Amino acid sequence: MAILYALVARGSVVLAEFTAASTNASAIARQILEKIPGNNDTHASYSQDRYIFHVKRTDGLTVLCMADESAGRRIPFTFLEDIHQRFVRTYGRAVFSALPYGMNDEFSRVLSQQMEYYSSDPNADRINRVKGEMSQVRNVMIENIDKVLERGDRLELLVDKTANMQGNTFRFRKQARRFRNTVWWRNVKLTVALIILLLIIVYVVLAFVCHGITLPSCLK
Fold it and tell me: Which residue spans traverse the membrane (predicted)?
């Protein structure tokens, strides 16, 4: 999967999170939450190894995800915007008084579903291309994570490589299923066309035979 981890937090208080891989991204995400400067709305991206932590903070609510660098910026930030809207729409002002992990039981499933959608469904990127990149995303510079975390404090990012293999397998199976469906529909259309052609031939033959039978009676 392109997006491997996501959380929603109020300040440094995590309200919901989900991980699609065996990784210590959760610990690193907490370090980032504690180190993000100021209280203003922000969009930021921090790279570590070949993964990038994307952060969106709006009105005191922070949404963060860790994605493979190949995912670029548009998809992760569109994912973050989607999650932010869903979270606020679902919980309203309760987010400002909720206990740690107060929404995790319910909203972790939403994180999982949307992570899979933005990681695997090509329609997610097609929609984004039609809408165009968000203006604030164009200005986001991807900085090394050392910008916010002291080198001595920074944890090494550990990601189970089988997670990416599973993601690739999922995409392969989806493409194979789509190909099988395409071939099946093509065969159905060909079969229908052959049946129609056969019916036309039968009709012409019957019409000719019937015409041949009635012709002598007409000559009398």
Answer: 190-215
